[in-house]
Amino acid sequence: MKRILTICTIFIALLLANTTFAIDLDKYPGLKPIITTLVKEHDFTETELLDVFGKVEYRDDIIEAINRPGEAQPWHKYRLLFVTEQSVNRGIRFWRQNARALVKAQKKYGVPAEIIVAIIGVETRYGRLKGRYKVINALTTLALGYPRRGEFFRKELIEFLLLARETNTDPLKYQGSYAGAMGLPQFMPSSYRKYAVDFNGDNKRDLINNRWDAIGSVANFFIKHGWQTNEPICEDVQIEGQLYVWFEKLGIKPRLSIRHLINAGIFPENDKRREDRLVSLIALEGENGPVYRLGYNNFYVITKYNRSRKYAMAVYELSEMLRKKYYNKRP
After folding, report:
1. In angstroms, rounded to a whole number, what is the distance separating the alpha carbons of residues 135 and 164?
2. How many angstroms separate the CA atoms of 111 and 102, rounded?
3. Residues 148 and 109 sit within 8 Å (Cβ to Cβ)
4. Secondary structure letter of residue 187 according to DSSP
5. Catalytic annotation on 320?
């Protein structure tokens, strides 16, 4: 009897930890203006929307997940999630399997193949982990239950329903991340609609299953956000004095010239860089103290994909490992 009670207690606890329930319009009045916008501005009918949202589940576990992002870890721990030999080996395999698409993307958009591969590696482990949540559950839950970024997720929910209609897909069928990102490159719905491309010429923009489209779309995203072909991304620095404290507070957008930094005792590893080039000073938590690097425009562009400097640095470091291994050991 005691054993049965223990099992029942564990089962109930698990149920409570993953609470889900159908959306109730009376309980969540914030959904009503979203429906109104879709009806008035995008020609949906209230009946079809009520039918869809009547099948949507509010998920407490999504709120819990977004409140404990991986980026909250210090850099030296976060880095180990993505920058590993296993990830490099899988990335090389992905690169070789999709070499034609990557060559085409690099030639058309000017974005290096290793950056594209690294993005897909960090986002979905090269397509292995594309997300286990229904996208509409994630976006609706966050639009209604995450006030810190509620407006953002309300807009993404509208974009998602427009995307589902454009692709003639049941919105309840899309799977993705707890934040509502989809496919191999984990595009949010607005990015999917704006930057996804038909890269293999089949008249579809499929980021869920089509590697060609995913590769071309990542490259398109970067070039549309200001990627500069054949320009640097990041490099190590040597620091003297204390003025660096002021520079690191300026954020990740390049604002100061290398000349300013050199005058303040911050020296790039490659002292042949143009001194008028704008950079930012990137500070990260190393295992034995702070780690400093210079971020150029292209590093800043990576943060357009994910605003975290840790994310951008993980992509950069993984891309460098991929590039060196691919070109040095290419069969």
Report:
1. 11
2. 9
3. no
4. B
5. no
- Distance, in Å, from the CA atom of 125 to the CA atom of 138, rounded to the nearest integer, reads 21
* CA 141 – CA 20 distance, rounded (Å): 10
Helix (H, G, I), strand (E, B) or coil at 207: coil
User: Do residues 39 and 45 lie in contact, with contact meaning Cβ atoms separated by under 8 Å?
Assistant: yes
- Among candidates 295, 249, 250, 284, which has minimal Cα distance to 71? 284
Task: Compute the distance between CA of residue 89 and CA of residue 87 in angstroms, rounded to an integer.
Answer: 5
Which one from 114, 123, 156, 159 is the annotated catalytic residue?
123
Fill in the amino acid letter for 276. D
pLDDT (0 to 100) of residue 1: 46
pLDDT in the model for residue 330: 56
pLDDT tens column, 150-161? 999 999 999 999
Residue pair 144/28 in contact by the 8 Å Cβ criterion? yes
Residues of the chain with pLDDT under 70: 1-22, 243-244, 271-273, 329-331
Find where tokens 């006030």 sit: 147
Distances in Å between the alpha carbon of 66 and those of 178, 274, 330? Answer: 7, 41, 40
Give the Cα separation of 148 and 66 in Å (integer). Answer: 11
Residue 178, both tokens? 């707890």
Contacts of 93 (CB under 8 A, 6+ apart): 126
Position 331 scores a pLDDT of 54
Closest of 160, 163, 162, 141 to residue 150, by C-alpha: 141
Distance CA(91)–CA(123), nearest Å, equals 12
